[in-house]
Design a protein that fits this description.
Elements lengths: L10 H14 L4 H8 L3 H9 L6 H11 L3 H6 L6 H23 L15 H8 L1
Length: 127
């Protein structure tokens, strides 16, 4: 049995996420609407927050945009900055050790640089 569409209070936030993901992928609204089998007007209503897609359409929309339906409904999960920072630090430390070992250099001679990109760049790069 399908669940009810998201509450109308969520519609503006859902619409912004749909619009931002579509734009980040340089996907024309007309094309996305056609791929989903809906009217351009329906897509515009979702993106403007006037209405929400039904659950089946939300799933198809999420799949097309490369995210989960939960992401469209709620946005990214709550961050755990310290936990994430510790995981990244562990990964970088392991990479430094492997590079030092492979090159025969002392670990203090190996430096890694990491650049974080905004989500829009990452989504566009995947598309």
């Amino acid at each position: 049995m399908e669940s009810l569409p998201p509450a109308s209070d969520d519609a503006p936030a859902i619409g912004r996420r749909i619009r931002d993901l579509r734009r980040a992928q340089r996907l024309a609204a007309k094309r996305l609407a056609a791929e989903l089998g809906v009217s351009r007007t329906a897509l515009h209503k979702w993106e403007s927050g006037a209405n929400c897609p039904r659950p089946a359409v939300l799933r198809a929309l999420a799949g097309r945009l490369g995210v989960t339906p939960e992401f469209l409904r709620s946005g990214p999960p709550a961050a755990d900055p310290l936990g994430q920072a510790n995981r990244v630090a562990g990964i970088l430390d392991q990479a430094r050790r492997e590079l030092a070992s492979a090159s025969g250099l002392p670990i203090d001679a190996v430096m890694l640089r990491m650049e974080l990109l905004p989500i829009a760049y990452l989504v566009a790069a995947r598309g």
